[in-house]
Amino acid sequence: MADDEVRNQPDEEVEDVEEEEDGEQVNPDEVMEVIEVDQGDNESEMGDGDAEHEEEQHEEDPMDSQQALVQYPDTSSAAFTGHTADNSVFAISMSPNGDVAVTGGEDDRAYLWRVADGQKMFECGHKDSVSSVAFNHNGTLVASASLDGLINVWDPQTGAAVVQLDCGDDLELIRWHPKANFILAGTASGSIYMWDVPAANMSFFSGHSARVACAEWAPDGRTFASGSADGSLLVWSPKTQTVISKMDSKANHQFDMTEVSAIAWHPDGSLIAATGEGAAVKLVHVKTNKVIGTLQGHQDSVECLAFSNSSPYLLAAASLDGNIRVYDATTQLEVCKCTHDGGVVSVRWHPLQPIMYSCSLDGTTRIWHGRTGDQIAMCTGHNNNVLALDISKDGQTLVTCGEDGRALVFKNVLAAVIA
How far is CA 52 from CA 110, 127, 168, 401, in A? Predict the structure, then answer.
């Protein structure tokens, strides 16, 4: 594919039914009630390598003040170095087939590149730091979102612009629907937007009074949950734009959180795990809207939560204290603990096995057995904090990005397990 300036392409009609690989169908009418919105004269900046960059003012982050990292050998199989040197790469996502990755960074750019050799395919320009990137459920679309509130959706096969979405506010996150082409956006003001792509019909959700810190679709895609700096956890109907249930300290004194910063859905949709400024994790039963458990043990903020995809279902809680504590979701007992040399900022589970992948401010990404806590492998090569990771469907390929301005690829990471 040529690295030419990316072209705009006309919007296509949204299909009446989106079909997942397993045959399950999702009717868009069950997900959203359309609100027509004029997108105005916004033009995509894809491929505009000469766009002026605005100066960014960064507040001092406590995660920046880490002691010197241990310098490990570079064990990666490929690296993408297209971002501006010494500009942090904040976000990374791998296509469902594992062939391509997308990264977004402090240099106001998103890049699509080949996993096999780290070679750039396409570039998407923004006017502010790109804080979130993601492929849709089947890899036919990729989105990059910047702090100025703009979301660019593009075709990963051609690099052509599909649509630009504007939420008119500082953007905190984006999330694709698990089975259809709908995208959520959470903002600093507490508003949530949803669009169908490429038609760009918008739905608006108002319920939080402060920054939307996290949002996740339910496994079946019929509802979604959001957490906010106002201390509330809301479950929404995307079709009616109404709150199905609300959890905060006023509704339940056991939900004593001043901020909800990370959430995770149980694979069967029955529970939501939530955490905030403190070190505790709350388990909320979705149907009864009651707190059924509090998981403790961490000494610092929990940054990320993730349920395993294999039974018995395990919940991983990754913390800035350097530990990942794994709990049995049924018994609510701690199963094991995995320890990094620095704060842990992200954790993911293998799609089929009880294996965890975690990245840390110690500059490493590690792979663990989720039931025993044994370390399976350590992937190294970054010379600064590792900020995000993604894994392939078979769990054998791992991509990471960090504050050193690079993205790395690690192949056959489970070789020791298979051997």
Answer: 15, 8, 20, 24
Q: What is the mean pLDDT of residues 332-339?
A: 97
Looking at residue 63, its pLDDT comes to: 46
Rg of the chain in Å (alpha carbons): 20
Tens-digit pLDDT profile for residues 374-409: 999 999 999 999 999 999 999 999 999 999 999 999
- One-character DSSP codes across 6-25: PPB----PPPS-EE-TTS-E
pLDDT at 30: 64
Q: Residue with structure tokens 């979102």?
A: 145
Instruction: State which amino acid sits at residue 149.
Output: G
pLDDT at 130: 96
Closest C-alpha among 6, 8, 10, 19 to residue 199: 10
Buried b (16+ CB within 10 A) or exposed e, 202-220: bbebebbeebbbbbbbbbe
Residue 47 contacts residue 5 (beta carbons within 8 Å): yes
Looking at the chain, the number of H-run helices and the number of E-run strands are 2, 34
| Mean per-residue pLDDT of the chain | 87
CB 174 within 8 A of CB 216: no
Distance in angstroms (rounded) separating the CA atoms of residues 322 and 343: 4
What are the tens digits of pLDDT across the range 160-201? Answer: 999 999 998 899 999 999 999 999 999 999 999 999 999 999
b/e per residue 78-113 (b: at least 16 CB within 10 A): bbbebbeeebbbbbbbbbeebebbbbbbbbbbbbbb
For the chain, the straight-line distance linking the first and the last C-alpha, in angstroms and rounded, comes to 37
Give the span between the Cα atoms of 408 and 59, in whole angstroms: 27
Beta carbons of 365 and 342 less than 8 angstroms apart: no
How far apart CA 197 and CA 326 sit, in angstroms, is 37
pTM: 0.85
Q: Are 208 and 196 in contact (CB under 8 A)?
A: no
Determine what percent of the chain falls in helix, strand and coil, rounding each to the nearest 5. 5, 45, 55
